What we know:
There is one protein chain. The protein is an alpha/beta fold. It has an eight-stranded mixed sheet, with helices on both faces. Helix content is 40%, strand content 12%. The chain starts with a helix and ends with a helix.
Amino acid sequence: MRNLSILAVTISLVLCVYTCAYAEFGLDFLNGYFKDAPKQYFIKTADGWTLALSRYMPEKIKGKTPVILCHGFNYNNYFWDLDEAHSFARYLKEKGYDVWNVNLRGSGDSSKPALSDLRSLTKLQLEKIPQIFMRAPMNITKFNWTIDDHVHKDLPAIIEFVKSETGCRQVTWIGHSMGGMVMYAYLQTEDAGSIKNFVAAGSMINLDKEPNPLLSKIMTQKPITDASLLVNTTVAYQMRNLTLGTIKLPWEELFYNKENMDDLTVITMFRIAVDDTAPGVIAQFSNIIKTGKFASVDKRFNYTDNMRLIKTPALLIAGSKDNLGGVNTVLYAYDHISSRDKEMHVFSKENGYSADYGHCDLFLGKNSKEEVYDYIHRWLKRR
């Protein structure tokens, strides 16, 4: 009862502040960017979880391989379609690609713990409230998962569904952060033949040096891992947004270069693009911090040590100021995959770009569309 009271107070405070923000910034702030809403699909994984996919189909598909966009750890598919100025999904659609923007389990409108669904009410996405109350009772038994579940259950279901719907034998995969990590693992252990090429942006595969001290402190504390089922990030981000960014969370520096993102973009990102995660996912990331390597939960398969198994054409990108999937780990991946067609690119001032890019601002930065989006598109066009 006390938890419900706290949730109610939080929602009331958020509503008050967002109403003021709406008066200042307009409808785009309150609802996000919903013009020309994509078609929604809901599919089932082999273990019974529901995954939500959004399809952005151009009027004329120009014979291109369908593109699947996959968000990272702690995020959902709004990451790829945040607002009019920051929508890689719509950018690719305009270029003639059939784009599938996916939510892994626990994110967006996919199956997630009932408590996470209720906490997401603090985002005040009004059109989703009926869905939340209908969905929560059905997810009462769904409360934990791992990165391996994404790799071996979510990705096969997503990829096979997209192939079936489009009639294509292969797809292009573009993943940010964990969205690239799961593809590294998939290509080593699942049906690599289904992937024509892939882009991994800011995707960690190893730690060959002392990790960011803050990241290490957060991810290696067992009480945090144990508590993450009940005490999670959605409410924390909404409480942060109550101050319209005046008071920042201590771990924000990990996720973006503040000089390369507008304040409103950061507020919108934390309001609609973040989701709770699971103890199993946090524990698996914690193991990477402790050991320096990405391995399966049961420790039987080491994804870092088997990067040589990857032969798929790949573009690996990094931001020079990324505190999570930075240049060193992306370079490790580039050096160790066996792909004959592979490229690595760093977005930095030194390389002629407007900013030293961080983690999330690779796609949500002030000039991402002209710099990062265009670079990836040129790479895709050549294949």
